[in-house]
Amino acid sequence: MQLNYTARLTSGFHGKKVETMKHIGPGNRHAQVYTMKRSNGMIATTANLVNVEAGLSAGFYSVCWAMGDPSETLESEAGRATEKALLGQHQRALAKLDAFIAKHPAKVEA
Question: Are residues 30 and 22 in contact, defined by beta-carbon separation less than 8 angstroms?
Fold first, then answer.
């Protein structure tokens, strides 16, 4: 399975979003980190431990959350969701990713 683990900026119906996927354990276990403007007006970066299934067409993948999988907001601030603001917050949150993963060792093996 090959996935791109660099920060990826996309624009869609709900606005801009930055996402990073990092392989963290055996099999298909990954840390997913995404930054976007939430409905409460805050720019927030959230980390999840997820299972990733490859096999969809050309670089696409599906992410499966299971009940009890950890999720945590790593960064949150008020502001406009410009590309610069999203990427800056995303980079600051990535510096906290290893600490988030270390807090959930049993879930890395899941």
Answer: yes
